[in-house]
Amino acid sequence: MHAYIDQTADFVRKQLAQAEAGHDWWHILRVWNQVKLLLEHETGDRLVCELAALLHDIADSKFHDGDETIGPRIAGEFLNSIGVPLQTVAHVQQIISNLSYKANLGTVVFHSKELEIVQDADRLDAMGAIGIARAFHYGGFKNRELYNPGIPPQPDQDKAAYKNSTAPTLNHFYEKLLLLKDKMNTAAAKRIAEERHQFMEQYLKQFYKEWGDVAP
Description:
- There is one protein chain.
- The protein is an all-alpha fold and 216 residues long.
- It contains ten helices and no strands.
- The protein starts with a helix and ends in a 5-residue tail after the last helix.
């Protein structure tokens, strides 16, 4: 097991060496570590969880022209190349395919405890201080406005609208980040999410105060 994980970590670290900083090796490492913490409270296949955490953003679709098949394919090719059991490979690929927020705006037919754990870990990294930093970094990467009072958030977007949005970064709080607390799967993640959610709400109050505006 350790050999598979060590080889996978080394592969991902090299593959994401030039990645956008919100979806780079450090993001992977935080999610991986969070998965290990959640596994202290939740029961799941550790190998599946750790491999999925390491590979979940190996080829994020938003950096590959919206192609949602490339990540699971690359993950599967790599895991097969190092001899990971086929059943484990298939499970990891299913997790990668169904993990993201936008994937869950569509129809999701796959479910497992391992998906719940990795999904919670990934969502926790989109919350709190780091979640705020990641949101604004990606907004800068896409040259988006910080905030525009004339463009209201659309919290009830379908998958297509969410995927194609070019809205100001602050809208992302209302369209995703503030919604994550109530979408956590595990009891341990729910506890962690509460604190991070409160921090984001406090941040928004300060943002609007400094902007001289009121919340939408």
